[in-house]
Write a structure and sequence with these properties.
mainly alpha, 4 helices, rod-shaped, DUF4190, transmembrane
Length: about 180
């Protein structure tokens, strides 16, 4: 059974959609000061107001809520703060290995020590999950290259002249 419309109202007039979202509030509007009267129907209307305030979008309740009298404003929730993972610790042996490998440019003897320490640092990094894999690899590469260049330099400086002397002595004959 349907009831007739009240007199003076058009039954086909546009009715407001009860499921439509509430009109968006002005994001640039200044919030009311603490203790100031609130207009009914505003987003921060008290529970006893005749018009219920529209429900704010998720997460907006923290921004527009005013704290009770005598309390400090609430902090932002943890979900809205950026998350930065903790940095992994640096493997100190990898740094020492790289330093010794580079010092091997000046004093050849520290280059193989730096390369060997680089291998040890790589093993520690795999077991503990620390940072410094790039430093250890650089120490290994630089250390062995400098060691190889040092060995070739020693061969050129000491062995080749000795071979030249021995060749000259062996080839010298008196006629």
């Amino acid at each position: 059974m349907s009831y007739p419309p009240p007199s003076g109202q058009d039954p086909y007039a546009a009715q407001p959609d009860p499921y439509a979202p509430p009109p968006a509030a002005n994001p640039y509007a200044q919030p009311p000061a603490y203790g100031s009267p609130v207009v009914p129907g505003s987003p921060v209307a008290p529970p006893g107001s005749p018009v219920a305030p529209p429900t704010p979008p998720y997460g907006e309740a923290y921004k527009s809520a005013t704290p009770p009298a005598g309390q400090q404003p609430y902090a932002q929730p943890y979900a809205q703060q950026p998350y930065y993972p903790a940095a992994r610790p640096q493997n100190s042996m990898a740094l020492v290995a790289l330093i010794l490998s580079l010092v091997g440019l000046l004093t050849w003897i520290t280059a193989p020590i730096g390369a060997i320490l680089g291998h040890s640092a790589m093993k520690q990094i795999r077991q503990s999950g620390e940072d410094g894999e790039g430093l250890a690899k650089a120490a290994i590469i630089v250390g062995w290259i400098i060691t190889g260049l040092g060995v070739v330099g020693c061969l050129c400086a000491f062995v080749l002249p000795m071979l030249g002397i021995l060749g000259a002595v062996g080839s010298s004959s008196s006629y």
